[in-house]
Design a protein that fits this description.
The chain is α+β, with helices and mostly antiparallel strands and 156 residues long. It has 3 helices and 5 strands. A 5-stranded antiparallel sheet has the order 1-3-4-5-2. The longest helix has 20 residues. It starts with 8 loop residues before the first helix and ends with a helix. Bound molecules: coenzyme A.
């Protein structure tokens, strides 16, 4: 059995549900892209805090942000975030966003984003993150894809 503090993907996986309200909308009655970005950043920060066991994490990069469909008032937004990769002082978090039909439970994907989060020490310097323990073939596949994204981001 997995130890409670083994830093697996499921250990820090986070699901957040948000009811879209009029305050979240732009002039055309759709969810603001910036509002969604804030929610995505927040979920990634929670995942990073849980994985590292620290409050002191910061966002270094966000990429692959694509808006596939709009969201409207009273829609349920579901954001699911989990760690795909750990480096030395950074980790990559994938956040998928769905619009959920509350009656049928069917979720329609609207966005996928990858965020690089960095752990900082008391002096604000990057600090070593706990390694990610991979348990499934799917997680190993995600790790390999994350390595390609990392090389592209860092121009390697
Ligand atoms: C993120 C930050 C701490 C990195 O500091 P730095 O001096 O570049 O530190 P390093 O070069 O040691 O990099 C630290 C880690 O971040 C990663 N990193 C740094 N810049 C990155 C970028 N643009 N894209 C992806 N990863 C990046 C590095 O690869 C390294 O990861 P690793 O140790 O796993 O290999 C610093 O740039 C910063 O404080 N940025 C502002 C963050 C912020 O305020 N975010 C909130 C939104 S504005």
């Amino acid at each position: 059995m997995t130890e409670p503090f083994t830093k697996t993907v499921s250990y820090s996986k986070t699901e957040q549900v948000h009811l879209v309200s009029p305050a979240d909308l732009n002039g055309n009655g759709r969810l603001f892209g910036g509002t969604l970005l804030k929610m995505i950043d927040e979920v990634a920060a929670i995942v990073a805090k849980r994985h590292t066991g620290s409050d002191n994490v910061t966002t270094a990069a966000i990429d692959n942000l694509t808006f596939k469909a709009g969201a409207y008032v009273d829609n349920l937004l579901v954001l699911i975030g989990y760690v795909t990769y750990t480096g030395n002082t950074s980790l990559e978090v994938r956040v998928d966003t769905y619009v959920e039909n509350a009656i049928t439970g069917i979720r329609k994907p609207i966005n996928r984003a990858y965020l690089v989060m960095v752990l900082l020490d008391e002096a604000g310097r990057p600090a070593k993150v706990p390694p990610l323990v991979l348990e499934t073939e799917a997680e190993k596949g995600e790790w390999e894809m994350a390595q390609l994204r990392r090389a592209k981001r860092l121009g390697q």
